[in-house]
Amino acid sequence: MAELFYETDAELATIQGRRVAVLGYGSQGHAHALCLRDSGVDVRVGLPAESASRAKAEEEGLRVVTPAEAAAEADLIMVLVPDPVQGRVYAESVREHLEPGDALFFGHGFSVRFGYVEPPADVDVCLVAPKGPGHLVRRQFTAGKGVPCIAAVEQDATGKAFDLALSYAKAIGGTRAGVIRTTFAEETETDLFGEQAVLCGGTSALVKAGFETLVEAGYQPEIAYFEVLNELKLIVDLMYEGGLEKMRWSISETAEWGDYVTGPRLVTDETKAEMRKVLAEIKDGSFAATWMAEYESGKKRYEQFRAADADGLLATTGTRLRKLMSWVDPA
Ligand code: NAD
Ligand code: MG
Ligand code: MG
Ligand code: MG
Ligand code: MG
Ligand code: MG
């Protein structure tokens, strides 16, 4: 069973005694910076001089400096820039400003797990990752609630790194909901596997294959779109609220019977064998290396994949149909 931590397990005073730099002001960065500020923490945001996010942070009353200035001022640096640029930001703006006893924090373990950031031995290295997008983190926090977080320590130079991570989690509302202890390796490997095998890769491929099967058999694309993509939200909402049990309670008996007898014909032992290969490529770093090479060379294949799907019948059908649903696509 996972180890859980709540409000009384964490001291807000610990993080209130630090000078915190939040690098990046995107989905996670804005939520962390604002919640830390509202929790009485000395926080500055680090963004490049030309960054469009600067104005947004300043409008909220946050002090914005460059990433290097933020790292120099701070003794706790939270890295919330996109994962593929973290290695560069660390080398250019953070490394030289780390002093013994400082702390380097992340919202995802990618850069540390795969060696793109190699912190010196005398700093704490921690992970605090809310299990939800930044806007939900901020909304829950301002409502007096919180989004559950996971927290990990990769390197405990001070002997108090986990207490510091819990204190940080408390300042962004995490301990109001609960914080689960993990490791950088577990967080990184399960996050990548989940998004590739199930959430993004698996689901997109399933939707596309189902849509193509219906359209190739002569059914109208609009009808196929509703059945295999649009209705997915209703099913996922039910799973989110009450697991597979609530979804199966809500659907028809016919749908539930089809679930049992047809699902395993599609996701077979062969599919699971492939999932194990996907996981192995995540663990041995080859997925990360391929993605970093793609990113560094200008994301050409990435853009080709995106363009191919954007021109497809599934996309064009969806653009048309969403206009019929005013609550989805307001005119
Ligand atoms: P994002 O793309 O929303 O925002 C990135 C921010 O970094 C932007 O403000 C951008 O202007 C800034 N930035 C880009 N290059 C920069 C540079 N060179 N120097 C300084 N700032 C730069 O990113 P995000 O989704 O908030 O992700 C940040 C981290 O949080 C990642 O490690 C990600 O894996 C993790 N995370 C994200 C979510 C999520 O819901 N989006 C959830 C959990 C963890
Ligand atoms: Mg410093
Ligand atoms: Mg994830
Ligand atoms: Mg991810
Ligand atoms: Mg139906
Ligand atoms: Mg039922």
From TrEMBL:
UniProt keyword terms in alphabetical order:
Amino-acid biosynthesis, Branched-chain amino acid biosynthesis, Magnesium, Metal-binding, NADP, Oxidoreductase
Q: How is the cofactor bound?
A: Binds 2 magnesium ions per subunit.
What is the protein's known function?
Involved in the biosynthesis of branched-chain amino acids (BCAA). Catalyzes an alkyl-migration followed by a ketol-acid reduction of (S)-2-acetolactate (S2AL) to yield (R)-2,3-dihydroxy-isovalerate. In the isomerase reaction, S2AL is rearranged via a Mg-dependent methyl migration to produce 3-hydroxy-3-methyl-2-ketobutyrate (HMKB). In the reductase reaction, this 2-ketoacid undergoes a metal-dependent reduction by NADPH to yield (R)-2,3-dihydroxy-isovalerate.
Q: Which reaction does it catalyse?
A: (2R,3R)-2,3-dihydroxy-3-methylpentanoate + NADP(+) = (S)-2-ethyl-2-hydroxy-3-oxobutanoate + NADPH + H(+); (2R)-2,3-dihydroxy-3-methylbutanoate + NADP(+) = (2S)-2-acetolactate + NADPH + H(+)
Protein name, as recorded: Ketol-acid reductoisomerase (NADP(+))
| UniProt-listed Pfam families | KARI_C, KARI_N
Q: Which residues bind Mg(2+) 2?
A: 191, 227, 231
- The answer to whether UniProt assigns keyword Zinc to this entry is no
